[in-house]
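Chain and conformation:
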Amino acid sequence: MKQVIPLLLLCLTACASESNAPRVRLGELESSAPTPQVASVNADILRIAIAPVYSPRTSLTLYQDLATHLGQKLNRPAQIVQGKTYDEINNLVREGAVALAIVCTNAYLEGQEQFGMQALVAPQVNGEIVYYAYLIVPFDSPAKSLADLRGKTFAFSDPLSNTGRLVAVDQLLQIKTTPDAFFNRTIFTYSHDNSIKAVAENLVDGATVDNQVFDFLIASGSPLPARTRILARYGPYGSSPLVVSPNLDAGLKTQLRDALLIMHADDAGRAILAKIGIDRFVAPEDALYDSVRAMRVRAGQSKK
């Protein structure tokens, strides 16, 4: 029997194909800060875009201190800019509307292919510059592997997410199927914490999520992870980078890179990094992202 998703969440859609998957914005059900509108670019303001890896309110809480710190180091007022999708953030970088952006690995590779987006630094977490995907299900789910989710409902975080979509697509390709054929229905939640919430509240039967978001929720005392189970861990993948446009002023690019690379060297910087679960920022090697590039090719996302 096909599962019926709550009417409010699925917006009365009856289409089960992923190409028309409902865009479930759990974050819109919460009180979250308004998204700043970038009407024009003021060179005096350091605009930093945050991809919706976390929900909007959580993103502001996590990254406001980082933005303020960078603004102080560069002697400019800093402003966080948020978008509803990874693609919106990529477009802000492409258009030069922001100086710096925190993006997902797959979104970075998409931007690199499309307009030469550049990785400035990447976070080191627990001594590594990698992260993983967790396949999660509700705690009381009988599922023991991805195969047990055939015919079930599944949450993706964003069309350009690596751990929140591409990894699951790649795993299905390995058993010669696709999300449309394998799942009864897929939805987009537009952040990893919202995907975790959807699984924890039994709104969907499974999801793949960023392990760093999942582990951060545990560390911050959220009850949601305990209401889920991890069925599998996939990876490792190169850490999601902080990126810039290839057209960004070279002097500003150097200032940003230098400020980020030495953040861990003083008490104030270390405290900010600890708040977001990062040891330090490092300069990433391009080969760090080759495994995700390979998945993009297999999934038909890469034009190379």
The chain has two domains: 16-28+129-237, 46-127+240-286. The chain has eleven helices and eleven strands. The domain at 46-127+240-286 is CATH 3.40.190.10 (D-Maltodextrin-Binding Protein; domain 2). The radius of gyration is 19 Å.
